[in-house]
Write a structure and sequence with these properties.
Distance between the termini: 82 Å
Largest sheet: 7 strands, antiparallel
CATH superfamily of the largest domain: DNA ligase/mRNA capping enzyme
Number of domains: 6
Number of strands: 24
Strand content: 15-25%
Shape: globular
Radius of gyration: 28 Å
CATH architecture of the largest domain: 2-Layer Sandwich
Structural class: alpha+beta
Helix content: 25-40%
CATH class of the largest domain: Alpha Beta
């Protein structure tokens, strides 16, 4: 037994750190596959030895929540589910009972409480015993009704999620590759736990209900249970039957206006084909999911089985049995980023997985490489996490980590291994690394910044590598390198002429574009507009402003203000900006404060946009028009909102309901355009 204890301690430390990173910090330091494998190993060792050490994740549900949000204890612990990857095990578990099979959603679990028909409280799962109160944020979830017909006390559990389609749209609007969000779950977790609900409102968070916990008072009464509550007495059917059916509870919740998890009734006989149906659907399913959940349809039967210290016995999770392929690791590719982080990517002999050919998988950091003892030439097994993202499952030969580059593969500068939060990563130490510059210049020439046609990231990489561009001002002196550019592969006289002309056009610009193009941390296009208006388009005042002065601008908090001050406290940055300004012809500051000299008839008005648009390419385009005309566009309806814009004026959406409650006019696009014509 003694030789088992050290390994158990090692496993507890590894699993605890991985869970802390995942649940508290919304980051991953090991794959789900690796976590499950280590967890199962610890479980087996505990069973073998009969010893369970303090702090074992097999006995804990989660970890302490660290944030400034208020904390609240759950009335009863929110337990996790036991799991299997075997359909036959699911059939055996279900036996002769009927079951309900549903998606296991991959977001952030929240508990919603309604009283007198109104949303009163929302609390995250947290560590299963204590969660964070996120009520203001829940009120701006896109699909949550703020008021329902049922007037009793209603408690439900749901999963806050961001759909893949919304996630991809948000990422598409981010020019900087390094600034793009990593995955929907991490973005959702950060969005739900914001201290500012306006940020949450802009993130398209939805809440999918998967369990009714309590429904009492009002027109009927139900008991407080682990997975259920009650059904409406007005159906005039047997109350016990209604109170004892998971599917009927889902139907009742839908009648109240909630979106419930997609589900199907099953028996042991129909279970395999129903699992197969879900498996076929996952490739096109828009909501992140990492498996399925099987629950007894007969609630009383499920509750009669009780629970273990960690798991309820009325439900079980099904994790997809990953399709695993064996291949050979060809080499590790090291990919530098704008932040200086050099990411390891495993490149292996191509294999077929889940119907597609894959040959690359991110390894994330050196700590994961060391855990896998990963070296070129090793035989590895690979899979697709959640049937989507290629990952390394195991290393069969484990030759060991070697050949970590001592110099950056882009600039040749020295590299350094840094350890943060017990995770080792590789960084380029050269502040003038071309990789860092490429990302900065890509932002600088982008559409919303200087908008220089022809300077793609690939072209910038060539020019920077050739020494043509060292700083922003050099873009306007490409004529110094005419002969070399014309002779470069993919170029010629015409390409060169077009590029020089594009740079000349871009030199006549606005201050908003320049401020955004500098790439100061956190200063996107909207914040650039806010700062220019705040300082009346006086750039010198803007860059010399104190943090306190900057924070007087709408939407500029301490973090953004301090970042701005740090940027302009650098003599080097100021010199670069001065040389850039010498090349630019910046439009005269408009007398009325508009960024382009146009009128600002919507000054002082606040708009919220919801639903599909018809006269604009998208809602962002409408938002930009509002801001251009002096108005402000926010994500949530409040007492400060002037108008709600929704083409479906009679919609019963949460935003429309809120607007009616507050007496805020709801405009269609046609109404808005008429309003604009009338005040312009």
């Amino acid at each position: 037994m003694q030789d088992r204890i050290p390994r158990m301690k090692e496993l507890i430390a590894l699993l605890s750190e991985a869970s802390r990173a995942y649940y508290q910090e919304s980051r991953e330091i090991m794959s789900n596959f690796e976590y499950d494998k280590l967890y199962d190993e610890l479980l087996a060792l505990e069973a073998e030895t009969g010893v369970v050490l303090a702090g074992s994740p097999t006995q804990r549900v989660g970890y302490e929540v660290l944030s400034e949000l208020p904390k609240e204890a759950h009335p009863s612990p929110m337990l996790s589910l036991d799991k299997t990857k075997d359909v036959a095990a699911l059939q055996e578990w279900l036996g002769a009972q009927e079951g309900v099979l549903s998606w296991k959603l991959d977001g952030l679990t929240v508990v919603l409480t309604y009283e007198d028909g109104k949303l009163m409280k929302a609390v995250t799962r947290g560590n299963g015993e204590i969660g964070e109160v996120i009520t203001p944020n829940a009120r701006v979830f896109e699909n949550i009704p703020l008021q329902i017909a049922f007037k009793g006390r209603l408690v439900m559990r749901g999963e806050a999620v961001i759909r893949y389609s919304d996630f991809e749209k948000m990422n598409a609007e981010i020019e900087d590759i390094d600034a793009k969000y990593k995955n929907p779950r991490n973005l959702c977790s950060g969005s739900v736990r914001q201290l500012n609900s306006e940020v949450t409102a802009g993130r398209h968070v939805n809440c999918i209900i998967f369990a009714l916990v309590q429904a009492e008072g009002g027109e009927f009464s139900g008991s407080d249970t682990e997975t259920g509550g009650a059904a409406p007495s007005e159906t005039r059917t047997d109350a016990r039957d209604l109170n004892n059916s998971v599917t009927r509870r889902f139907a009742w919740l839908k009648e109240q206006g909630f979106e419930v998890v997609e589900h199907k009734q099953v028996t042991a006989e129909t279970l395999p084909e129903t699992v197969a149906q879900f498996a076929r659907a996952i490739a096109d399913y828009d909501i992140p999911s990492d498996g399925l959940v099987l629950t007894y349809e007969d609630i009383a039967y499920g509750e009669s089985l009780g629970r273990t210290a960690k798991f309820p016995r009325n439900s079980i999770a099904f994790k997809w049995a990953d399709e695993i392929a064996e291949t050979t690791l060809s080499y590790i590719e090291w990919s530098p980023s704008r932040t200086g982080l050099i990411n390891p990517v495993a490149v292996f002999e191509p294999v077929e997985l889940e119907g597609t050919t894959v040959s690359r998988a991110s390894v994330h950091n050196i700590s994961i490489m060391e855990g896998l003892e990963l070296g070129a030439g090793d035989r590895i097994t690979v899979y697709k996490a959640n049937m989507i993202i290629p990952q390394i499952a195991d290393n069969l030969t484990r030759s060991g980590v070697r050949d970590i580059p001592k110099i950056c593969p882009v600039c040749g500068g020295e590299t350094a291994i840094r350890q943060e939060n017990d995770v080792k990563s590789l960084y380029c130490t050269n502040p003038d690394c071309q990789a860092k510059k490429i990302k900065s210049f890509t932002l600088f020439v982008s559409r919303d910044a200087l908008n220089i046609d022809g300077l793609s990231e690939m072209t910038l990489e060539k020019f920077i590598g050739a020494g043509f561009i060292h700083e922003y001002a050099d873009i306007f002196h490409l004529d110094r390198h005419r002969d070399a550019i014309v002779e470069m592969e993919g170029f010629g006289q015409k390409s060169y002429d077009n590029l020089v002309q594009a740079a000349e056009r871009a030199s006549h610009t606005t201050l908003v574009r320049v401020v955004y193009g500098l790439g100061v941390a956190g200063i996107g296009l909207a914040n650039a507009k806010v700062l220019c208006r705040k300082f009346k388009f006086d750039f010198e005042k803007m860059r010399c402003a104190s943090s306190e002065e900057l924070q007087e601008a709408d939407g500029i908090g301490a973090v953004l203000a301090d970042g701005w001050c740090r940027y302009f406290s650098s003599e080097k940055n100021n010199a670069i900006v001065d040389r850039l300004l010498a090349e630019l012809d910046i439009e005269k500051a408009p007398e009325d404060g508009g960024e382009d000299g146009g009128s600002r008839p919507l000054e002082g008005m606040t708009f919220v946009i919801t639903g599909a648009v018809e006269h604009f390419a998208n809602r962002k385009e409408l938002q930009e028009l509002i801001e251009e005309k002096g108005g402000k566009a926010t994500g949530s309806v409040t007492a400060k909102t002037t108008y709600l814009i929704n083409n479906d004026v009679n919609s019963t959406s949460s935003k429309n309901k809120k607007a009616r409650e507050l007496g805020i006019p709801i405009l269609s696009e046609e109404d808005f355009l008429k309003l604009l014509d009338g005040v312009d």
